[in-house]
């Protein structure tokens, strides 16, 4: 089986077997760009674009594909389906655009190394449609959902990305946060914070830079940077890197 191996955050291996949607997309950001001043938010916007590409497709609205902070795409809170990495290259001339290169990989039809979007669709079909039933509904409850192709999901994802980037550039975080939190795994989650002796904190959301906002039991609000903290969702723990 052909499989490409790339390097992700913190030298983690990023596998791309056949059936994985893997793409790079450069963005040229003007010096006065609103996104340029909040570049760490870009990975969140990309993850949102991929998730909504899947879940706004007719019939796929209830497919439990979600956003995991800061840059992962998950099936429920159980299995990673994909991730995002953004690299930034600043021009020596401050009047020239800054280039942000988006790297994204999503398991679309490959069963290795974890599971794929199409596996999630098959699980959904098995749950919502019995083999003896011939009925269908307008909401897709009894309809067998077809799998995605890599090409179709890529086109849908880039269309969503273009839309969210335009919304953010014109109106800021308020224009996209409703969608973001709708597909986010962590709303009001109570987790342990490793940097504070495993104290329990409550997740409140993300700030303007995409940092995780949590509130301690004493009411103190903390903003956690994604490059210094990792969300161990299986153990309900935020740990320092």
From TrEMBL:
It comes from Geodia barretti. InterPro entries: aa-tRNA-synth_II/BPL/LPL (IPR045864), BPL_C (IPR003142), BPL_LPL_catalytic (IPR004143). Keywords: Ligase. PANTHER family: BIOTIN PROTEIN LIGASE, BIOTIN--PROTEIN LIGASE. One of its GO terms (molecular function) is biotin--[biotin carboxyl-carrier protein] ligase activity. The keyword Ligase applies. Residues 1-169 form the BPL/LPL catalytic domain. This is Biotin--protein ligase. GO terms for cellular component: cytoplasm.
């Amino acid at each position: 089986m052909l499989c490409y191996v790339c390097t992700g955050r913190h030298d983690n291996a990023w596998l791309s077997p056949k059936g994985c949607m893997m793409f790079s997309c450069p963005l040229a950001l003007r010096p006065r760009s609103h996104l340029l001043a909040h570049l760490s938010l870009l990975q969140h916007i990309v993850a949102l674009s991929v998730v909504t590409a899947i879940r706004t497709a007719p019939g796929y609205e209830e497919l439990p594909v979600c956003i995991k902070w800061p840059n992962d795409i998950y099936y429920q809170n159980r299995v990673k389906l994909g991730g995002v990495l953004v690299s930034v290259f600043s021009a020596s001339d401050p009047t020239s655009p800054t280039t942000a290169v988006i790297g994204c990989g999503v398991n679309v039809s490959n069963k290795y190394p974890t599971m794929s979007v199409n596996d999630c669709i098959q699980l959904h079909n098995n749950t919502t449609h019995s083999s003896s039933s011939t009925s269908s509904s307008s909401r897709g409850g009894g309809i067998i959902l077809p799998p995605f192709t890599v090409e179709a999901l890529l086109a849908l994802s880039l269309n969503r990305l273009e839309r969210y980037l335009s919304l953010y550039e014109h109106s800021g975080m308020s224009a996209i946060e409703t969608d973001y939190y709708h597909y986010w795994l962590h709303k009001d989650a109570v987790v342990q914070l490793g940097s504070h002796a495993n104290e329990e904190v409550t997740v409140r959301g993300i700030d303007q830079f995409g940092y995780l906002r949590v509130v301690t039991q004493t009411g103190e609000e903390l903003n956690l940077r994604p490059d210094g903290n990792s969300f161990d969702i299986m153990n309900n723990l935020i740990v320092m890197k």
